[in-house]
Amino acid sequence: MVDNILQVEHISKSYTGHRALDDVSLSVPRGAVYGLLGPNGAGKTTLIRIINRITLADSGSVLLDGKPMQAEDIFHIGYMPEERGLYKKMRVGEQAIFFARLKGMSRREAERRLHNWFLRLGLDEWWGRKVEDLSKGMAQKVQFISTVVHEPKLLIFDEPFSGFDPINANLLKDEILGLHDRGATIILSTHNMASVEEICDHMTLINKSRNILSGSVEEIRRTAGGNVFEVIHRSNSQTLAEAITPIAQLLGQSEGIVGGYTRSKIHIPKDEDVREVIARLNDHCGLRSINEVMPSMNDIFIRAVNGTL
Predict the structure, then answer these.
(1) pLDDT in 10s for each residue of the chain, 309 residues
(2) What is the pTM of this model?
(3) Strand boundaries in the chain, DSSP class E
(4) Does 160 fall in a domain?
(5) Three-state DSSP class for residue 34
(6) C-alpha span between 296 and 303 (Å, rounded)
(7) CATH number of the domain that 253 lies in?
(8) Which residues contact 65 (CB under 8 A, 6 or more apart)?
């Protein structure tokens, strides 16, 4: 039996004229790195705010460790929102201590842990400076530290790599995986499929306010693994898409390669249509080669959102 740290059961939420969540359920296994995916506006942030008791659901329930969530349970959760909320006129160290105290830590313990984290992420020289003096990347590091300093068992990051350069994005990724190795369960809300492919082991995809796909990343890729092909051809994306519609689907944007050829990925739902698609590509796109490939999470995302998975 799977040990779930978090269960979301039949959550619905509406605002004036808008259905933000429609009967959404999901289960997060203890110790998972869990991807919460979806296009912008799909309902991810609303769901996270309900889990954190910032927003109330119209119906449904949230269970932590098998019990309905109570107000005190937020001390066991660390949440880094996409909107990085720091008070610009406060000193950096005092700001971090303030957030740690809100999570129930003593000032002495907060200072000890925070100084370790500041040293670790290269912020130790900024302890006494004002928040408004920080670059965007450094401010995000402070927000990250404030999220994890009380060592919660459940950590929720909303687009944590947004705005980071590649070096600092990798640094943050390593720290998140380190927290996971030390026992934390991670929920990563994002529309960046590369992040999911690299570090998540379970996922839920929300689209248009509904959960349309859930499971382990490995199982989803295996189940969705049929009939995705890499095509090398001489045409552009629009010509290729028109040539294969409606019996096949272009997945993502095409990539140019040496010699005037273009590389694209397509999905052909029915085995019996493969020969017809090849014929169309020969006639209209200057087909050079076609090979079946394992779909990426980005391919699966596109197919699921378009209803062709």
Answers:
(1) 669 999 999 999 998 888 999 999 999 999 999 999 988 888 899 999 999 999 999 999 999 999 999 888 988 999 998 776 788 888 999 999 999 998 889 999 999 999 999 999 989 899 999 988 988 888 889 999 999 999 999 999 998 887 778 888 888 899 999 999 999 999 999 877 777 888 899 999 998 899 988 999 888 887 776 788 999 999 988 999 999 999 999 987 677 777 889 999 999 988 899 999 999 999 999 999 999 888 788 888 887 887 777
(2) 0.79
(3) 4-15, 18-29, 33-37, 59-64, 67-68, 77-80, 154-158, 185-190, 202-207, 210-216, 228-233, 249-256, 262-267, 289-292
(4) yes
(5) strand
(6) 11
(7) 3.30.70.1710
(8) 5
224: Cβ contacts below 8 Å, ≥ 6 apart = 295, 299, 300, 303, 309
Q: Which two tokens stand for residue 263?
A: 């590389």
Q: Are strands 18-29 and 4-15 parallel, antiparallel or unpaired?
A: antiparallel
Residue 30 sits in a domain of what CATH number? 3.40.50.300
- Is 301 within a domain? no
Q: How far is Cα 240 from Cα 281, in angstroms, rounded to an integer?
A: 7
